[in-house]
Amino acid sequence: MTNIYKGTIIYSVNRETLSVNEDSYLIVEDGFVKEITGILPEEYKTAEVTDYGKKLIIPAFSDLHIHAAQYVQRGIGMDKLLFDWLNDYTFPQESNFKDMTYAKTIYDQLVNDMIKHGTFHASLFTTIHYDASDYLFQKFNEKGLYGYIGKVNMDMNSPEFLCEDTEESLRETERFVKEHLGYRTVKPILTPRFAPTCSEKLIRGLGEIAGKYHVGLQTHLVESIAEKEWTLELFKNYRADGEIYEKNGLVQNGPVIFAHVIFPSELDKEILKKYHCVSVHCPEATNNIIAGIMPVHALQDEGLDVAIGTDVGGGSSVQVYRQIARAARLSKLKEFYEPEGNKQVLFANAFYMATK
Ligand code: GUN
Ligand code: FE
Q1: Ligand 2 centroid to 151 CA: how many Å?
Q2: Rounded to 5 degrees, what angle do the CA atoms 229, 233, 239 make?
Q3: CA distance from start to end of the chain
Q4: Which residues sit opposite 5 in a β-bridge?
Q5: SS (H, E, C) the chain
Q6: Phi, psi of 44 (to 5 degrees)
Q7: Does the CB atom of residue 313 touch ligand 1 within 6 A?
Q8: Ligand 1 within 6 A of 223 CB?
Q9: What is the pTM of this model?
Q10: Gap from CA of 85 to ligand 1 centroid (Å)
């Protein structure tokens, strides 16, 4: 099937270059872009064209770090730093997802909101709850969205109402992975919340699941200085946060998505480069939870892949295009106060991170 759209077509060629095509045609064959052209080829002369005039036609946004279950708390409770924010607001709120009526209401609203704002690709955290995670997975599939969906693991340093038994966490995760393989656009992904809430035994078990089913990983990595220090205190046999996942076989089997990566050590960066991990910049959340400002340009210059995320509910909306603007703004502050090694993120670069 062929669909043809006319308008101002914009897309990223690379992180320096935007291609802007005014009064052009986008030719789509069976859901894939075949061509962008100023002159409609002869073979399509009689085809129907949807004409958007001067309006912009852009690729859908990719939100590579979002907590589906925090949709209801987005933008509120921003008076605390990370650990207090989690303990006082986020964990009690996430525990509501044991109730399917609640979960369905929130997940339905979230998915509608994402579609409305042009996000068709995403990597999502849910909660520890199997049934609610499955519901979101099915919803994504039903809507034809592309995504990775991960049931969260947490078995320590978590309140009783949101803490799993290690063995059960592994059993439920393996079941989640097994029952969600083979879908065309949605895939399961392993999701240990972050090192401080996961025992070494849990991480090791997840590594075995990763190898057995060839699934990837998403988690938070060096988001704040306190988080980085606590992680290394808890995991004394490891030299870096990234090494916890590498040594336990979690970065070798599928896509690896690390949220934040604000304070990476040299070893973290080596691991991220070696396994082509994606680091996700969440400019608004980082600001709301006062974690730090990711050295986006410096990481890119060192060869790391950086994408953009809303980190709802650390971020206040699902609107990825607002994160494009925030990434540019925050990078100016970073460059101004820490000029060494830091450069502004220009619009083309931020758009690339949000769409490519
Ligand atoms: N670190 C562990 N859990 C979370 C979370 O829910 N949000 C953010 N921003 N950081 C985290
Ligand atoms: Fe997050």
Answers
A1: 14
A2: 80
A3: 25
A4: 26, 50
A5: CEEEEEEEEEEECCCCCEEEEEEEEEEEECCEEEEEECCCCHHHCCCCEEEEEEEEECCCEEEEEEEHHHHHHCCCCCCCCHHHHHHHHHHHHHHHHHCHHHHHHHHHHHHHHHHHCCEEEEEEECCCCHHHHHHHHHHHHHHCCEEEEECEECCCCCCHHHCCCHHHHHHHHHHHHHHCCCCCCEEECEEECCHHHCCHHHHHHHHHHHHHHCCCEEEEECCCHHHHHHHHHHCCCCCCHHHHHHHCCCCCCCCEEEEECCCCCHHHHHHHHHCCCEEEECHHHHHHCCCCCCCHHHHHHCCCEEEECCCECCECCCCHHHHHHHHHHHHHHHHHHCCCCCCCCCHHHHHHHHHC
A6: -105, 5
A7: no
A8: yes
A9: 0.97
A10: 9
Residue having the nearest C-alpha atom to atom 8 of ligand 1:
314
pLDDT at 169 over 90: yes
Q: Phi, psi (5° rounding) for residue 253? A: -120, 0
Which residue's alpha carbon is nearest to atom 11 within ligand 1? Answer: 220
Q: What is the mean pLDDT of the chain?
A: 97
**302-335, pLDDT tens digit by residue?**
999 999 999 999 999 999 999 999 999 999 999 9
Cβ–ligand 1 contact at 198 (below 6 Å): no
Q: Pick the atom of ligand 1 nearest to 314's CA.
A: 9
Cβ–ligand 1 contact at 93 (below 6 Å): no
Q: Which ligand is nearest to the CA of 288?
A: 1
Q: Per the structure block, which two tokens stand in for 264?
A: 């990476």
How many A from CA of 66 to the centre of ligand 2? Answer: 6
222 contacts: CB under 8 Å, gap ≥ 6: 228, 231, 241, 260, 261, 262, 263, 264, 265, 268
Which residues, listed in sequence order, are joined to residue 123 by a DSSP beta bridge?
148
Q: Ligand 1 pocket, 311 CB below 6 A?
A: yes
Residue 75 is predicted with a pLDDT of 86
- Residues that place a CB less than 5 A from ion ligand 2: 259, 311
| Lowest pLDDT segment from 97-101, 111-115, 337-341 | 337-341
Our answer on whether the CB atom of 69 is closer than 6 Å to any ligand 1 atom is no
Nearest CA, atom 7, ligand 1: 314
